[in-house]
Amino acid sequence: MNRIPRAAIIVSLIEALKAKDSWCGETNVQKACFFLQELADVPLALEFVLYKYGPYSFELTDELTSMRADGFLALRVRDPRYGPCYVPGELAGPLRERYPKTIARYANEVECVAQWLGDKGVADLERVATALYIRKKASDTDEDERARRIHDLKPHISISDARAAIREVEEMFAEVEHSMCQ
Amino acid sequence: MAKHIHEIRDAIHVFARLDSDERKVLDSRPFQRLRNIHQLALTHLVYPGATHTRFEHSLGVMELADRAYRVITAKENVKGSAGSVVPPGEEAWGYWRRVLRMAALCHDIGHLPFSHAAEEKLLPQGRTHESLTVDLIESDEMVGIWRKMIPPLTPEHIVKLAVGPKKLKDCIFDKWERILAELIVGDSFGVDRMDYLLRDSHHAGVVYGKFDQFRLIDTLRILPETDEEGAEPMLGIESGGLDSAAGLLLARYFMYSQVYFHRVRRAYDFHLQDFMSAWLGERGLPTKLDDFLSLTDNEVLVEMRKAADDPAHVGHDPAERIVKRKHSKVLYERNPNDSKKNPECGEAVYKAACKKFGEGVVRHDRYTQKGSDVVFPVRNRDGRIVSSFAASDVLQKVPLVNIDYVFISPEKRPEAEAWLKQERENIITPEKEEEP
Q: For burial by CB atoms within 10 Å, which of A104, A107, A108, B265 has the most?
């Protein structure tokens, strides 16, 4: 997917997350894009590695800054204790008008991801995103093995929290399989 | 008795100091090659003083990395969760200090002739100057030096800190390695950037790259991202250094707009790419280390001068444009009104100009700022952690670099300008989106 239509999807994702009361800081957007690509199969062409709070894409960090430079996004202060949140920028409107078909094509997937993740804080996002990351990397393993791997990678995530995150991700996959997101 | 500490005069930091073990790295073939790699490619054709090289920049990065390391690991500065990140004990402190210094010194040893100008076009897919840096740090010559140091250094540690997690996606970094890599190549407080802004500004003869490096480094700290439990540790600053951090980011913006993306400098970069592509042909730049180390700016410049005087040379046209200053000119530059009509206005003008005048005479230069540098933790005087973005009105207003030029050859410029004046509205108005 080219850069500008991808930017249109990211703006629509941020708007959908906002509608679900998400904080919409960089971690929220990072994890939502990870789910959009890896679980809902939207071809964002981002590479994710394990880094800050689980799966993380350096390309996406670059892209979010580029989108601010282009006026598609802006940063706003909500609470000085936390990092800023993303909001649509002054050129988000022209971007939407330029790519109505792309936005419509992926609207259901965007809505599903916002529904799944919109109310989650950073710690919850780290748990479910790491669970999805492990599921993609080791799809032939069972729940016990995945929970152990999550705990090994992120010792502050207990085995029982890891199990809960794995089950939550499985429910999300079930929704996708039942075409609720497409 | 032989001198153990070697002092090298430096235009920015007064001295760069190395001990005899580290001096062996300086004297190695990969590092000495940097004497012949210009820091700013052909920028000296616009700013005549900008003839400095990667050699002195690398020494400067090592010097700054050492200063920053001493600050962030000083007992009085290590508080709270930062304490669990810093490895305990003097031995570990000394080992990682040496690794950091050597990573800083070697972070650019894989640079190609004329630095970034020719990289994308002339290296095989998947190869970058960072991957060449890794190969060189892990080469037999350098591994021999690392092993003889006391204590011996693990090449993998040097690689991680010199290249960083963004370019080493297959490596897992622990929190300490992440902090130290951030100290060299990080978006907010990387000493690589601190040195190149100060040094490039000094040599170019502009003041835009200056900032209060001493205050900034003295206030650097390892801090949790927020006061919440489980927040990741990262580089941040004491509130007293906030304006110095804003100064660094403003310096970056002005250096990009005034020097690095100066339109004539960018035009020369394109001609340089064209010359090297024509000259090297299908074989591109060498990636076999011995061949790579033999190629510097000097070899390219000698060939370029020959080509400029020889109409039969395969690289004659771009070489002549550089040597005889017949560089391309800006036909179109992005502006806010056009962006509102079409977010891809530069691309639209570029495609239309190619159709009208041919691809060979038109170039598109598009760059938007990358990385994330305005958001980092700040420790207030009362000990609370706040976000830099909330704490600084200046940081909220630092502009972002956004370059969108369309260049055309000087011979076609009058005709192209007349054409664009007439067709501008039609070209900028976007076509309807096709089905994705």
A: B265
